[in-house]
From TrEMBL:
The keyword Cytoplasm does not apply. The chain crosses the membrane at residues 249-266, 273-293, 326-347. This is Integral membrane protein. The keyword RNA-binding does not apply. It comes from the Bacteria. Residues 1-60 are annotated as: Disordered. Keywords: Membrane, Transmembrane, Transmembrane helix. Residues 15-32 have a biased composition (Pro residues). Residues 33-50 have a biased composition (Gly residues). It comes from Embleya scabrispora.
Amino acid sequence: MHSSPGSYPGQGGGYPPPPPPYAATPAPPPYDPGGGYRPGGPGAPGGGHGAPPRPQPARPAFGALRGTVAGISLVLAVLLSIPALSALWLRWEVVSDQGFTDNAVELIDESAIRSEVARLMTDEVIRQLPPGVRNQVPRQVVQTAVTEEIAKPTFKAIWKDGVATAHDVVLSSLLGRDSKNVQTNGDEVVVNLKSPVDAIVGQLNKAGIPVSKAGLPTSIPIDLAQLPHASDAKQGRDALQAVDDAGRWLPILALVLLVLGLAVAVNRFRALVMTGVGLFLTSGLLLILVNAASGPVADELAARNTLNRDGIEAVYGVFTDSLDTMSWSVLAASLVMIVVGAVGLGMRGRRR
Protein backbone atom coordinates (compact mmCIF):
# COMPACT_ATOMS: atom_id res chain seq x y z
CA MET A 1 0.00 0.00 0.00
CA HIS A 2 1.48 3.37 -1.08
CA SER A 3 1.37 6.44 1.06
CA SER A 4 -0.32 9.49 -0.20
CA PRO A 5 1.79 12.32 -1.60
CA GLY A 6 0.99 14.51 1.34
CA SER A 7 1.98 12.00 3.95
CA TYR A 8 5.49 11.74 5.52
CA PRO A 9 7.29 9.01 7.35
CA GLY A 10 6.18 9.03 10.95
CA GLN A 11 3.14 10.97 9.88
CA GLY A 12 1.29 8.34 8.00
CA GLY A 13 4.13 7.34 5.59
CA GLY A 14 5.54 8.94 2.42
CA TYR A 15 8.85 10.83 1.62
CA PRO A 16 10.45 13.71 3.53
CA PRO A 17 10.17 17.23 1.99
CA PRO A 18 13.15 18.66 0.03
CA PRO A 19 15.50 20.96 1.98
CA PRO A 20 15.16 24.70 1.40
CA PRO A 21 17.48 26.21 -1.27
CA TYR A 22 21.07 27.02 -0.10
CA ALA A 23 20.27 25.87 3.41
CA ALA A 24 23.90 24.74 3.95
CA THR A 25 25.47 28.06 2.80
CA PRO A 26 26.19 30.52 5.63
CA ALA A 27 25.11 34.11 5.25
CA PRO A 28 27.82 36.52 3.96
CA PRO A 29 29.29 38.92 6.47
CA PRO A 30 28.22 42.57 6.44
CA TYR A 31 29.93 44.77 3.82
CA ASP A 32 33.05 46.46 5.15
CA PRO A 33 34.20 49.33 2.83
CA GLY A 34 37.56 49.62 4.58
CA GLY A 35 38.41 45.92 4.62
CA GLY A 36 40.35 44.02 2.02
CA TYR A 37 40.05 40.49 0.73
CA ARG A 38 41.24 37.78 3.13
CA PRO A 39 42.39 34.50 1.54
CA GLY A 40 40.22 31.55 2.50
CA GLY A 41 36.87 33.25 2.09
CA PRO A 42 34.07 32.41 4.49
CA GLY A 43 35.09 30.35 7.43
CA ALA A 44 38.78 31.21 7.10
CA PRO A 45 40.61 32.08 10.30
CA GLY A 46 39.52 35.50 11.33
CA GLY A 47 36.23 35.07 9.52
CA GLY A 48 34.64 37.25 6.89
CA HIS A 49 35.76 38.29 3.43
CA GLY A 50 37.98 41.25 4.46
CA ALA A 51 40.78 42.18 6.82
CA PRO A 52 40.10 44.50 9.70
CA PRO A 53 40.78 48.16 8.77
CA ARG A 54 44.25 49.54 9.42
CA PRO A 55 44.52 51.91 12.31
CA GLN A 56 44.46 55.49 11.05
CA PRO A 57 47.56 57.57 11.92
CA ALA A 58 46.97 60.14 14.59
CA ARG A 59 46.52 63.66 13.26
CA PRO A 60 49.35 66.01 14.23
CA ALA A 61 48.65 68.27 17.14
CA PHE A 62 47.43 71.73 16.10
CA GLY A 63 47.57 70.64 12.45
CA ALA A 64 45.24 73.36 11.20
CA LEU A 65 47.08 76.09 13.10
CA ARG A 66 50.47 74.85 11.93
CA GLY A 67 49.30 74.73 8.33
CA THR A 68 48.00 78.29 8.50
CA VAL A 69 51.17 79.66 10.10
CA ALA A 70 53.38 77.79 7.63
CA GLY A 71 51.38 78.95 4.63
CA ILE A 72 51.40 82.61 5.64
CA SER A 73 55.11 82.55 6.55
CA LEU A 74 56.22 80.89 3.33
CA VAL A 75 54.06 83.11 1.10
CA LEU A 76 55.47 86.22 2.78
CA ALA A 77 59.03 84.88 2.44
CA VAL A 78 58.53 84.31 -1.29
CA LEU A 79 56.93 87.74 -1.82
CA LEU A 80 59.73 89.46 0.11
CA SER A 81 62.47 87.80 -1.95
CA ILE A 82 62.54 90.46 -4.69
CA PRO A 83 62.51 93.54 -2.40
CA ALA A 84 64.96 91.83 -0.02
CA LEU A 85 67.46 91.06 -2.79
CA SER A 86 67.07 94.54 -4.28
CA ALA A 87 67.56 96.28 -0.94
CA LEU A 88 70.57 94.11 -0.10
CA TRP A 89 72.08 94.91 -3.50
CA LEU A 90 71.58 98.66 -3.06
CA ARG A 91 73.13 98.54 0.39
CA TRP A 92 76.16 96.61 -0.84
CA GLU A 93 76.78 98.37 -4.13
CA VAL A 94 75.51 101.93 -3.66
CA VAL A 95 75.44 102.74 0.05
CA SER A 96 78.58 100.84 1.02
CA ASP A 97 81.81 102.80 0.49
CA GLN A 98 83.74 99.62 -0.26
CA GLY A 99 81.22 98.25 -2.74
CA PHE A 100 80.83 101.54 -4.59
CA THR A 101 84.59 102.10 -4.76
CA ASP A 102 85.27 98.59 -6.00
CA ASN A 103 82.73 99.07 -8.77
CA ALA A 104 84.23 102.43 -9.74
CA VAL A 105 87.70 100.90 -9.92
CA GLU A 106 86.33 98.09 -12.05
CA LEU A 107 84.70 100.66 -14.31
CA ILE A 108 87.99 102.34 -15.14
CA ASP A 109 89.01 99.09 -16.84
CA GLU A 110 85.99 99.32 -19.17
CA SER A 111 86.98 100.72 -22.55
CA ALA A 112 83.92 102.98 -22.79
CA ILE A 113 84.63 104.55 -19.38
CA ARG A 114 88.35 104.89 -20.05
CA SER A 115 87.62 106.66 -23.32
CA GLU A 116 85.20 109.05 -21.63
CA VAL A 117 87.63 109.87 -18.81
CA ALA A 118 90.42 110.35 -21.36
CA ARG A 119 88.22 112.73 -23.32
CA LEU A 120 87.38 114.80 -20.25
CA MET A 121 91.01 114.93 -19.16
CA THR A 122 92.15 115.89 -22.67
CA ASP A 123 89.62 118.75 -22.83
CA GLU A 124 90.76 120.05 -19.44
CA VAL A 125 94.47 119.81 -20.29
CA ILE A 126 93.99 121.73 -23.54
CA ARG A 127 91.85 124.33 -21.78
CA GLN A 128 94.57 124.96 -19.19
CA LEU A 129 97.43 125.24 -21.69
CA PRO A 130 98.92 128.69 -22.17
CA PRO A 131 97.38 130.46 -25.18
CA GLY A 132 100.65 130.43 -27.07
CA VAL A 133 101.00 126.67 -26.67
CA ARG A 134 97.34 125.71 -27.03
CA ASN A 135 97.17 126.54 -30.73
CA GLN A 136 100.32 124.53 -31.49
CA VAL A 137 99.34 121.32 -29.71
CA PRO A 138 97.39 118.78 -31.75
CA ARG A 139 94.56 117.26 -29.76
CA GLN A 140 95.61 113.74 -30.71
CA VAL A 141 99.00 114.24 -29.08
CA VAL A 142 97.42 115.26 -25.78
CA GLN A 143 94.89 112.43 -25.97
CA THR A 144 97.61 109.85 -26.53
CA ALA A 145 99.55 111.13 -23.53
CA VAL A 146 96.44 111.10 -21.36
CA THR A 147 95.56 107.57 -22.46
CA GLU A 148 99.05 106.37 -21.53
CA GLU A 149 98.70 107.95 -18.11
CA ILE A 150 95.32 106.32 -17.47
CA ALA A 151 96.83 102.90 -18.20
CA LYS A 152 99.36 103.24 -15.34
CA PRO A 153 98.70 101.67 -11.91
CA THR A 154 99.36 105.03 -10.25
CA PHE A 155 96.31 106.51 -11.98
CA LYS A 156 94.06 103.72 -10.74
CA ALA A 157 95.20 104.38 -7.16
CA ILE A 158 94.39 108.11 -7.50
CA TRP A 159 91.05 107.29 -9.12
CA LYS A 160 90.13 104.88 -6.31
CA ASP A 161 90.97 107.38 -3.60
CA GLY A 162 89.03 110.12 -5.35
CA VAL A 163 85.93 108.00 -5.89
CA ALA A 164 85.96 106.68 -2.31
CA THR A 165 86.19 110.17 -0.83
CA ALA A 166 83.59 111.60 -3.20
CA HIS A 167 81.19 108.81 -2.26
CA ASP A 168 81.77 109.43 1.42
CA VAL A 169 81.18 113.17 0.99
CA VAL A 170 77.94 112.71 -0.94
CA LEU A 171 76.34 110.01 1.19
CA SER A 172 77.42 111.43 4.52
CA SER A 173 76.65 115.02 3.48
CA LEU A 174 79.96 116.11 4.93
CA LEU A 175 80.22 119.11 2.64
CA GLY A 176 83.45 120.43 4.04
CA ARG A 177 85.41 117.19 4.16
CA ASP A 178 88.20 117.18 1.60
CA SER A 179 91.11 114.91 0.84
CA LYS A 180 94.25 115.45 -1.16
CA ASN A 181 92.41 114.38 -4.31
CA VAL A 182 88.86 115.64 -3.70
CA GLN A 183 87.45 119.08 -2.97
CA THR A 184 83.88 120.32 -2.75
CA ASN A 185 83.10 123.30 -4.91
CA GLY A 186 79.66 124.64 -4.03
CA ASP A 187 77.35 121.71 -4.74
CA GLU A 188 79.89 119.79 -6.85
CA VAL A 189 82.31 117.09 -5.76
CA VAL A 190 85.51 117.40 -7.81
CA VAL A 191 88.31 114.85 -7.98
CA ASN A 192 91.73 116.27 -8.86
CA LEU A 193 93.56 113.81 -11.07
CA LYS A 194 97.28 114.16 -11.51
CA SER A 195 98.09 115.71 -14.87
CA PRO A 196 100.19 113.47 -17.16
CA VAL A 197 102.79 116.23 -17.51
CA ASP A 198 105.79 114.04 -18.26
CA ALA A 199 103.96 112.01 -20.86
CA ILE A 200 102.53 115.12 -22.54
CA VAL A 201 105.90 116.83 -22.69
CA GLY A 202 107.48 113.73 -24.19
CA GLN A 203 104.75 113.40 -26.81
CA LEU A 204 104.93 117.08 -27.76
CA ASN A 205 108.69 117.06 -28.04
CA LYS A 206 108.51 113.99 -30.30
CA ALA A 207 106.05 115.90 -32.47
CA GLY A 208 108.54 118.77 -32.81
CA ILE A 209 106.72 121.12 -30.44
CA PRO A 210 109.08 122.45 -27.75
CA VAL A 211 107.10 122.70 -24.50
CA SER A 212 108.29 122.99 -20.92
CA LYS A 213 106.54 121.59 -17.87
CA ALA A 214 106.17 125.07 -16.44
CA GLY A 215 103.35 125.88 -18.82
CA LEU A 216 101.33 122.69 -18.27
CA PRO A 217 98.64 122.03 -15.63
CA THR A 218 99.63 119.92 -12.65
CA SER A 219 96.11 118.68 -11.83
CA ILE A 220 92.88 118.08 -13.73
CA PRO A 221 89.50 118.54 -12.00
CA ILE A 222 86.82 116.02 -12.99
CA ASP A 223 83.26 116.40 -11.68
CA LEU A 224 82.28 113.11 -10.05
CA ALA A 225 78.98 113.86 -8.37
CA GLN A 226 76.38 116.49 -7.60
CA LEU A 227 75.64 117.18 -3.97
CA PRO A 228 71.97 117.58 -3.05
CA HIS A 229 70.66 121.10 -2.58
CA ALA A 230 69.65 122.12 0.92
CA SER A 231 65.95 121.64 0.10
CA ASP A 232 66.61 118.06 -1.04
CA ALA A 233 69.17 117.14 1.60
CA LYS A 234 66.68 115.88 4.21
CA GLN A 235 64.73 113.89 1.64
CA GLY A 236 67.97 112.38 0.36
CA ARG A 237 69.10 111.46 3.87
CA ASP A 238 65.73 109.83 4.63
CA ALA A 239 65.84 107.81 1.42
CA LEU A 240 69.42 106.76 2.07
CA GLN A 241 68.59 105.68 5.62
CA ALA A 242 65.54 103.74 4.39
CA VAL A 243 67.64 101.89 1.82
CA ASP A 244 70.31 101.13 4.41
CA ASP A 245 67.75 99.80 6.92
CA ALA A 246 65.88 97.79 4.30
CA GLY A 247 69.10 96.24 3.05
CA ARG A 248 69.94 95.13 6.58
CA TRP A 249 66.56 93.88 7.85
CA LEU A 250 64.51 92.70 4.86
CA PRO A 251 66.84 89.76 4.02
CA ILE A 252 66.85 88.72 7.70
CA LEU A 253 63.05 88.91 7.88
CA ALA A 254 62.63 86.86 4.69
CA LEU A 255 65.04 84.20 5.98
CA VAL A 256 63.30 83.99 9.37
CA LEU A 257 59.90 83.58 7.70
CA LEU A 258 61.29 80.86 5.44
CA VAL A 259 62.78 78.87 8.33
CA LEU A 260 59.65 79.32 10.46
CA GLY A 261 57.33 78.19 7.68
CA LEU A 262 59.33 75.05 6.95
CA ALA A 263 59.73 74.24 10.66
CA VAL A 264 56.01 74.30 11.52
CA ALA A 265 54.70 72.84 8.25
CA VAL A 266 52.72 69.62 8.68
CA ASN A 267 54.13 68.20 5.42
CA ARG A 268 57.61 69.69 5.18
CA PHE A 269 58.49 68.06 1.87
CA ARG A 270 55.41 69.49 0.19
CA ALA A 271 56.12 72.90 1.73
CA LEU A 272 59.68 72.66 0.45
CA VAL A 273 58.48 71.98 -3.10
CA MET A 274 55.91 74.80 -3.09
CA THR A 275 58.38 77.30 -1.63
CA GLY A 276 61.01 76.27 -4.17
CA VAL A 277 58.57 76.86 -7.01
CA GLY A 278 57.73 80.30 -5.65
CA LEU A 279 61.38 81.32 -5.26
CA PHE A 280 62.16 79.98 -8.71
CA LEU A 281 59.49 82.24 -10.21
CA THR A 282 60.48 85.37 -8.25
CA SER A 283 64.23 85.03 -8.84
CA GLY A 284 63.63 84.31 -12.53
CA LEU A 285 61.41 87.39 -12.77
CA LEU A 286 64.10 89.52 -11.12
CA LEU A 287 66.71 88.26 -13.60
CA ILE A 288 64.44 89.11 -16.52
CA LEU A 289 63.72 92.60 -15.16
CA VAL A 290 67.39 93.43 -14.49
CA ASN A 291 68.54 92.38 -17.94
CA ALA A 292 65.54 93.85 -19.78
CA ALA A 293 66.01 97.25 -18.11
CA SER A 294 69.56 97.71 -19.40
CA GLY A 295 68.56 99.11 -22.80
CA PRO A 296 65.81 101.52 -21.67
CA VAL A 297 67.94 102.81 -18.77
CA ALA A 298 70.89 103.45 -21.10
CA ASP A 299 68.67 105.27 -23.61
CA GLU A 300 67.10 107.43 -20.93
CA LEU A 301 70.34 108.41 -19.21
CA ALA A 302 72.28 108.92 -22.43
CA ALA A 303 69.81 111.62 -23.42
CA ARG A 304 70.45 113.53 -20.19
CA ASN A 305 74.16 112.95 -19.54
CA THR A 306 77.45 113.65 -21.23
CA LEU A 307 78.43 109.99 -20.85
CA ASN A 308 77.66 108.08 -24.03
CA ARG A 309 75.36 105.08 -24.24
CA ASP A 310 78.19 102.53 -24.19
CA GLY A 311 79.56 104.09 -21.03
CA ILE A 312 76.16 104.03 -19.32
CA GLU A 313 75.67 100.38 -20.27
CA ALA A 314 79.10 99.63 -18.80
CA VAL A 315 78.15 101.37 -15.54
CA TYR A 316 74.82 99.53 -15.42
CA GLY A 317 76.48 96.18 -16.08
CA VAL A 318 79.15 96.61 -13.39
CA PHE A 319 76.74 97.82 -10.72
CA THR A 320 74.05 95.18 -11.40
CA ASP A 321 76.47 92.28 -11.70
CA SER A 322 76.11 91.38 -8.01
CA LEU A 323 72.30 91.54 -8.28
CA ASP A 324 72.50 89.08 -11.17
CA THR A 325 74.71 86.81 -9.08
CA MET A 326 72.35 86.90 -6.09
CA SER A 327 69.35 86.15 -8.32
CA TRP A 328 71.10 83.17 -9.93
CA SER A 329 72.05 81.90 -6.46
CA VAL A 330 68.44 82.02 -5.25
CA LEU A 331 67.29 80.36 -8.48
CA ALA A 332 69.78 77.51 -7.98
CA ALA A 333 68.74 77.13 -4.33
CA SER A 334 65.08 76.95 -5.36
CA LEU A 335 65.83 74.11 -7.77
CA VAL A 336 67.58 72.21 -4.97
CA MET A 337 64.54 72.74 -2.73
CA ILE A 338 62.21 71.39 -5.42
CA VAL A 339 64.36 68.30 -6.02
CA VAL A 340 64.82 67.52 -2.31
CA GLY A 341 61.11 67.99 -1.61
CA ALA A 342 60.07 65.83 -4.57
CA VAL A 343 62.45 63.02 -3.55
CA GLY A 344 61.18 63.17 0.02
CA LEU A 345 57.55 62.98 -1.10
CA GLY A 346 58.35 60.00 -3.34
CA MET A 347 60.12 58.10 -0.56
CA ARG A 348 57.28 58.77 1.87
CA GLY A 349 54.75 57.50 -0.67
CA ARG A 350 56.65 54.22 -1.18
CA ARG A 351 56.85 53.58 2.56
CA ARG A 352 53.08 53.77 2.75
